[in-house]
Amino acid sequence: MTHSLETFQSSTTGPGRGLPLENTPPLRRFYVETWGCQMNDLDSQRMTGLLMEQGILPTKAVQDADLILLNSCSVREKAAQKAYSRLGEYRLLKRDKPHLLIGFCGCVAQQEGEKALRRVPDLDFVIGPGRVGELTSIVEQRRRQGRRVVATGFPDARERNYEFDALARDGGYKGMVTIIEGCDKKCTFCIVPSTRGPEQSRPMDDILEEVQHLLDYGFVEIELLGQTVNHWKDPQTGDDFAILLDRVARMPGVRRLRFVTSYPRDFTQEMVDQFAVHENLSPYLHLPVQSGSDRVLKLMGRGYQVEQYDDLVRRLRITRPDLALSTDLIVGFPGETEQDFQATLDLVSRTRYSQVYAFKYSPRPGTAAPRLRVPEVPPEESDRRLQALFALQGVIQHELNQELEGRAYDILVTQWGKKAGTQTGRTPCHRLIHFEYGDQPLELGSLARVRVEKGLPHSLLGRLVA
Question: Global pTM?
Fold first, then answer.
């Protein structure tokens, strides 16, 4: 069955090289390599859960695997080239293990489709993000019928297989819940609409059921996910994200509630007000701005101006004075002048972000930015601007971390420290903190009272409070 690529595509070809279809050994172990964002992390957890339900167990040693999955990300520069390079490394393992299966997943897989099968003869199947729920069926088609499958495109939400109780959750402290998939924005630099498909919101009842499932299993932090998470609307009732936040925050057992990624233009006052209503709504918000120049924002197709962004930040901080903000920034966008870049530095100076994720512009396949009739920024100039931005942010970030010295927070313990006798965790404002645990280590996923002793440029040092 084949439909248009924009909506749904499933195709198969004949058997590939090196796969005996008779007397194929059973799949016992699988290995997943994940690149990219939280959405990819959650997709990997979904695939892991589906395979474990079939009795196939994960391994951390790729050479022990009977099935390898590369879950790729297309955001960074030369994404396809890097993915094919990794697939080439995995192909070498088939010399000693002919029955090994290799699956190409994620956003680059969606982007490449059948081209990937032609380019990598030993590749067994390709799965886009919208088809993750079909993994076990696709694996069986390859093993039993010898078909090299391409499963890409974006079936309607009613056709998608999303069994949240089958996810193999990674870690015991943060439960991630996808509430909206895809994106309908038209940012000229972004490939997400073509790799993740159009926006599709999950019904509120399904979301609340999944949150309750996570709480029943002991998760204390809930993170709501979506490319434009605050554009969520209940497809049945029309309720918006502010109402969903209120419903989730009131559920018994939700100690912390976070959400990513927000789109500035979609933030309503009712959403802002939730930060005042619910103490368990984490005082941390990732609010991508991309540029501090109105002219560049227009070229990017962002749909807002710097003044509107500044006003949103002002209202958020009036509502929640301890709110920590992070952002995404692109430097060297086509047509960006020195004056435009200075406007970005000015924005960073006055907003004082707790963290900045900044990148040099690089063209993505199928996006509009490369077709803009504006001068390109030379690579060496983009490098200079990026380093200048990092230098400014480094000073601001260190100062903000030093301002937290002496304060005590309920820390969510997330992992073991690199030094003996230490663990690490996250403050409510999402800063990384290292601390000594004393006589007994603390359970991962638990909350502990820790006082900040020292603010470092990229993290905090603390001491456990008795």
Answer: 0.80
